[in-house]
Amino acid sequence: GAVVSQHPSWVICKSGTSVKIECRSLDFQATTMFWYRQFPKQSLMLMATSNEGSKATYEQGVEKDKFLINHASLTLSTLTVTSAHPEDSSFYICSARPLGQGRETQYFGPGTRLLVL
Amino acid sequence: AQSVTQPDIHITVSEGASLELRCNYSYGATPYLFWYVQSPGQGLQLLLKYFSGDTLVQGIKGFEAEFKRSQSSFNLRKPSVHWSDAAEYFCAVGAGLTGGGNKLTFGTGTQLKVEL
Predict the structure, then answer these.
(1) Is A98 an interface residue toward B (CB < 8 Å)?
(2) pLDDT value at residue B101
(3) Model confidence over A38-97: pLDDT tens digits?
(4) CB distance B97–A9 less than 8 Å?
(5) A46 contacts on B by Cβ (under 8 Å)
(6) Angle, CA of A62, A64 and A70, to the nearest 5°
(7) How far is A98 from chain B (nearest CA, A)?
């Protein structure tokens, strides 16, 4: 149980295009989902927190107009990287907190590797 | 602001040997501490967590960790490593989890290699 999937697992795109990454909780409902970014040999950095049906809360320094987050249902959140540039190339990881569980509980997806050419 | 340091980027141990992965944290209040493991192509899996109480915490897969407030450490240990333990290990501290916050701050990870 408590499986989180991400799609795609990797994507290559041209500079200037937009890329959408999906995060799904497969066997539970998630009131809250988190998006992280991980650069090589660096830690996971929280980008934003999204709650179903409301606007995402972005961490300081994260451009909300560039990284669009939608959490339209209790099982799906999407991250869209708009007008992607090479510096956006990274490993993007989502996590989900099950409905009714404590704040300390998060289940992580396998990540999406983005390469912008 | 909270921070986590994992001093060892890479560690290599022989199968059957003991393991200790180091984690030091900085946080102004009582920390909520976690260890996660990440295998290629898989999401981070929670090994164990510490909130309060007994400072020696038992986790899955035979792992344990000890919280030492005086040293601001939360080192992960396993008495006998198996080849399947080869993976990347992340220590994390949770900020404000009882106060309504959500944020996990991660260390940079330690890559464990197991020699057969």
Answers:
(1) no
(2) 53
(3) 987 788 899 999 888 888 999 999 999 999 999 889 999 999 999 999 999 999 999 999
(4) no
(5) 103-105
(6) 120
(7) 13
For residue B103, the chain A residue with the least C-alpha distance is A46
Tell me which DSSP letter residue A24 carries: E
- Which of the four pLDDT bands, split at 50, 70 and 90, describes residue B102? low
Distance CA B115, CA A90 (A): 30
Q: What is the pLDDT of residues B26-83, one digit of tens each?
A: 887 778 899 999 987 778 899 999 988 889 999 999 999 999 999 999 999 999 999 9
Q: pLDDT tens digits for A14-28?
A: 999 999 999 999 999
Please identify among residues 23-62 of chain B the ones whose CB lies closer than 8 Å to any CB of chain A: 32, 34, 36, 41-45, 49, 51
Give first-to-last CA distance, chain B, whole Å: 41
**Alpha carbon distance B45, B87 (integer Å):** 11
Instruction: Report which DSSP code applies to A59.
Output: P
**CB-based contacts of A91: which residues, under 8 Å, 6+ apart?**
A37, A38, A39, A111, A112, A113, A114
Nearest residue of chain A to residue B6 (CA atoms): A43
Check B109 against A43: CB less than 8 A apart: yes
